[in-house]
Design goal:
This protein is α/β, with parallel strands linked by helices and 411 residues long. The protein contains 13 helices and 18 strands. α5 packs parallel to α6 and α7 packs across α8.
Length: 411
């Protein structure tokens, strides 16, 4: 039976306008928002929830998580039981939902099994846009073998984050393998990274021909490519070849910004992960070599964020935290809020994120026809982003697809 609920006396946050309007009523019928306005009537039999002036806002969207990465030592994941890793992922997904994230994108690790378990209600968590295994060249960012190991087990059930592929034919096949599982996007490694053992952060990875082949395969099935990249050289190669979103981007420059604007591409900064790895990465398994590489990108991220924001680049919220550091997922709001207006930070985790995911009008806003993904918080996030970073005290209600998942309202 479809339930109808009227949320009364809401201060409604509109991320597009960057405003909070008091005295709104929001009618939810089943999983969707049915009506929004000051005079919406409660139909017969509807349940009425009095929000008493609290802020009602869209559910949050994190565009860069790794639900399988219960440790920062990513190399060990491939040798662990997929059942064990799946249970760990289920626990983390529930925690993400309880932080207010109703949708996440996992560009490396989560697969159709995780997606289906959430979609079928077997586990509580944000709905998952997954990329399956990220594509890496030999010696690239998802090739997590130590230098002395020549053998790699590519079995689908190994719960690691990536697959190694080389050459145009090899990358085409690897992309098709991920896409045939229903992946929402394909993730590729365009440069070296922090958590990988044998590559340099300033390297470029995959040839232009390989990148274009992967983009062609994704576009053939109306999907897109997300590219891990740090330096302007790596970013620019990806954007010119048709990569839709750049993950991290800490070392971009003005030439990169021009390409973002030319291609209407997206940047997904993940600043919190470098802050937390510097503080507690070693405690959660990050190898010494990765800690050294972390210092190369730590301070550059805020400068890149400011440069991209001033130019009007599409910015999306991302955290990219590993292991026990994932509990800091909401701190990205505070970090970005130090240099950007609160309204723009909130847009990155709502409407702009929805645009990247191809879900405009469906998630990221509270409007008729949208999924009823909504949060009730004490305080105004436009005045103080700290409202979003203390869910135990400030997050009072989490509604996902019209269903209440967290209820801390005092009645």
């Amino acid at each position: 039976m479809t339930e109808t609920v009227l949320f009364d006396r809401a201060s409604l946050l509109d991320p597009v306008a960057g405003t909070v309007t008091p005295g709104r009523r929001v009618l939810v019928r089943g999983e969707e928002v049915a009506a929004v306005g000051p005079d919406v009537e409660a139909p017969d039999g509807a349940r009425v929830v009095d929000l008493a002036g609290r802020t009602l806002m869209p559910g949050l969207i994190d565009c860069h998580v790794h639900v399988n990465a219960h440790t920062a030592d990513l190399g060990v994941l491939a040798d662990q039981s997929p059942a064990y890793v799946a249970v760990k992922a289920a626990i983390e997904l529930r925690e993400m939902l309880h932080r207010g994230f109703t949708t996440v994108r996992d560009p490396g690790g989560a697969d159709f099994g995780i997606h289906d378990a959430v979609a079928e209600g077997l586990i509580d968590g944000p709905r998952v846009h997954y990329g399956g295994k990220a594509l890496s060249q030999t010696g690239g960012h998802a090739d997590l073998r130590p230098p002395g190991r020549g053998i790699r087990d590519p079995h689908q059930c190994c719960p690691d984050i990536g697959v190694v592929c080389d050459g145009v034919d090899g990358v085409r096949k690897a992309a098709r393998e991920q896409l045939r599982t229903g992946a929402h996007h394909v993730k590729i490694m365009l440069s070296g990274g922090v958590a990988s053992p044998t590559d340099r952060v300033d390297s470029t990875q995959f040839s232009i021909e390989e990148i274009r082949a992967i983009v062609e395969e994704a576009e053939a099935v109306n999907r897109y490519v997300a590219g891990h990249a740090y330096t302007a050289r790596a970013i620019n190669r990806g954007l010119a070849a048709g990569v839709r979103s750049i993950e991290h981007g800490n070392l971009l420059d003005e030439s990169s910004v021009d390409l973002f604007l030319e291609h209407d591409a997206f940047l997904v900064p993940t600043l919190v992960t470098y802050r937390r790895m510097a503080v507690e990465g070693a405690a959660y398994g990050l190898p010494e070599g990765s800690l050294r590489k972390n210092t190369l990108v730590l301070d550059a991220g805020l400068r890149a964020l400011e440069l991209a924001h001033r130019a009007g680049v599409n910015l999306c919220y991302g955290s990219d935290l590993l292991g026990g550091m994932r509990r800091h997922q909401l701190e990205e709001f505070r970090i970005r809020g130090a240099v950007l207006p609160a309204a723009d930070v909130i847009r990155s985790a709502t409407v702009t994120a929805a645009k990247l995911l191809g879900e405009e009008g469906r998630i990221g806003r509270i409007v008729p026809g949208a999924l009823a993904d909504m949060l009730v918080v004490d305080g105004d996030p436009l005045e103080d982003l700290g409202v979003l970073t203390d869910p135990e005290a400030r997050l009072k209600l989490v509604v996902q697809g019209g269903k209440v998942k967290v209820d801390r309202l005092e009645r």
